[in-house]
Amino acid sequence: MLSHDVFEFIIHTNPNKIGYHVQAIIGLEAKVGYHDEIASQLQPYRAVRFIGAFSGKHDLIIQAYFRNNEELVTFVDQQLSEIEGIISVDVNVELKQYKDTFSYVD
After folding, report:
1. In angstroms, what CA-CA distances link 40 with 35, 47, 60, 88, 90?
2. DSSP H or E segment with residue 42
3. H/E run at residue 22
4. Transcription regulator AsnC/Lrp ligand binding domain location, by residue (predicted)?
5. Which domains, from first to last, does the chain contain?
6. Arithmetic mean of pLDDT, 39-62
């Protein structure tokens, strides 16, 4: 399995242990043709852990971690608002986590 790249070895940091207490899943509605540009502009942000293109209500969904709600508000109001092509932002803050795993096999 190792020789076929079935396994990826990562170190998963517990965000709460290093001061990141706010996890947000942020859905973005984007103008047609802007998906790649928006995603590339989001990549440098350290708070952003995941960026994906999706079908359905949101064109792009990002997962991001923040120290507090003020950092989240600043990210949305200042950083996201400056990215051309974003039509709307849907911020969902995690209230309680029930499962977080990277294991997909029994």
Report:
1. 9, 14, 12, 18, 19
2. helix 35-42
3. strand 22-30
4. 28-96
5. 17-93 (3.30.70.920)
6. 97
